[in-house]
Input
Amino acid sequence: MSLRIDEGALQSGDRLASIRKAALEHRVSKNTMAEAYDSLVALGRIEARPGSGYYVRSKPSAQAAQPRKHVVEALDLVSLLREQLDQHYELRPGDGRPPACWMEGSEIGVQFGRANLLRGKAVEHGYGSSWGFGPLREHIALSLTERGIRCAPKQVLMTHGANHALDLIMRHLLEPGDTAFVDDPGYYPLFGKLRLSKVRVVGIRRLADGPDLMDLEEKLATERPKVFFTQSLAHNPTAGTLSLPTAYGLLLTAERHGFHIVEDDPFADILPATRPRLAGFDQLNRVLYVGTFSKTLSASLRVGYVAAQPALADALADIKLLTAVATSDHVERQVFGLIAGGHYRRHLRRLQTRVEAATAQALDELHALGLPVAAPVDRGFYLWLEMPPGTDEARLCRMAAERSIFLAPSTVFRPDRQAGTAAFRINVAHASDPRLLAFWRDVQPS
Output
């Protein structure tokens, strides 16, 4: 079917046969046909329209990569590094590694072939492109377009997970002594990264519908941030989701005061594409968009990305070259293989079902205990459990530890580490564990 699309036998907008009819035509089972359609959807060749069926999508035109002026001249370190990864020359005496043909028949090549990581293509034992595996970047660009973010593959840079993307952004946009705004409470590893870079960290109060715009304006009266790092959907740790008015106000404020926004979206693949994203409203003008497969596939794969306007993407790619050279071509091919084979799409459906069920059960059981936890608009991995006034957060953590229960208190997620309203981040996967429920029951005031 993919070949028929490529040859023009099926045109953009054509409706495909139903799964049942197509299975009969091709003499295969309905499950096999459903998997084939899933693979074509994952590759962006067709789209599923609920209640209507499957339709052919228009294929984006491919643009040939042309050598840039500074690559052709190869006069600086970044240019030389880039040319060793993004190859434009037939004869390569300037390379820093042996040619792939020298690795023919190697044990590693045999093992990669058995693992089918490269989907039938010859093993390339070099670094791969400095930007990351092309087909995976094309898939990501298509996914962003579905989320309302117009993005070309050349604006997508692959990274070693979201944390690497954040690190590249910090290196480019911030210098020692600069100020960065962050969510308060927010993503605590980010605070450590910023302080390691000698950047001043200022928290902006996080509400259920996004950053508190009043608190933002008050801080801007005395602070001049270069960047605001935030998470719009299924927020870590509060589980809140950005509202349209807050998104509008935040973007207006960023434009007026001249700072960039870095939007982290780790749960994007299990959330509706129609949810309000700052990058969608801004179209990557002032917003840099960070994504990852760590939350939804595997943290060990270390595959993430950043999407930005072309000039910023180029600058981040240069920093990546100088600090990490490249990300793993083999790992990115593996991820793309899971996507192209429809496996990732099916995995996401199962994951969404589990998250929904675990969240619903956790809310019922925590509410039954009289614990005030709000139902999140978007279902990620977390709930935010706020405790009654006067609750000693540290004491509860010690009591839980005595029962071999690990709690994540709110002070960890606050950039100044100062105690406010006592609260805990609860992972929905463990929220209904009888041992945890018994602990909450025992510590409730009588």
Notes: The mean pLDDT is 84. The CA atoms of residues 290 and 306 lie 4 Å apart. The chain is about 40% helix and 15% strand. The two ends are 66 Å apart (CA to CA).
